[in-house]
TrEMBL record:
CDD domains: MobA
Organism the protein comes from: Glycocaulis abyssi
Domain notes per entry: The N-terminal domain determines nucleotide recognition and specific binding, while the C-terminal domain determines the specific binding to the target protein.
Catalytic activity, EC: 2.7.7.77
Protein name per the record: Molybdenum cofactor guanylyltransferase
Quaternary assembly: Monomer.
Primary location class: cytoplasm
Function in brief: Transfers a GMP moiety from GTP to Mo-molybdopterin (Mo-MPT) cofactor (Moco or molybdenum cofactor) to form Mo-molybdopterin guanine dinucleotide (Mo-MGD) cofactor.
Keywords recorded for this protein, A-Z: Cytoplasm, GTP-binding, Magnesium, Metal-binding, Molybdenum cofactor biosynthesis, Nucleotide-binding, Nucleotidyltransferase, Transferase
Amino acid sequence: MNHTFAIAVFAGGLGTRIGGNKPSRLLAGRPLADHVKDRVSRWRAPLWELVRQAGQGGLGGSEEICDASPPGVVLEGPLAGLYPALLRAEAEGRDLLTVPVDMPFLPDDLPGRLGAALVGERGPVCAMAQSQGRPHPVCTLWRGPVSGLIAEQAFAGNFSLKALAARAGVRHVIWTQAPDPFFNINTPEELAEAQVLLAAADRKVS
């Protein structure tokens, strides 16, 4: 990547479909938060947890950033975490790479390929991962200034990450390998499926 960047992990969701407290749900005996931290730590960038309240995320050793909103509007969903993280990244002159706490198989080349898609681009702009015909708005590299666009969009009643990316100017980057490296876990059934995928990956390595 040509720009410095920070990594922000969305860890503030309620996780109601999986029984709550998603970051602490166990995959192969370890919390989901640990699996994601293992992945993102390889990228050697500042790591921030985006949480609703302090102590929620579970990525030990990272800095927590709590949900916040611009004056005059209350943000909902991921935008409430993205907004303060973007403010921080923009103030430090960094790009911001967002990933969720429920994707334990993130590809090693995620920041490199997203960064390559933005070479020569000036903000506001972003690069978004896509696989199996689906974009993944939570896996996006944001180049500021984007924070001001969030306020404009929220005042119009739109809290969609995908809509924000379109407003900023999005470049899609496609991954084609199987199994899908952007497999995400929202239910007990998906957690069980992730266990099978992880076991298969371990057998390949050994």
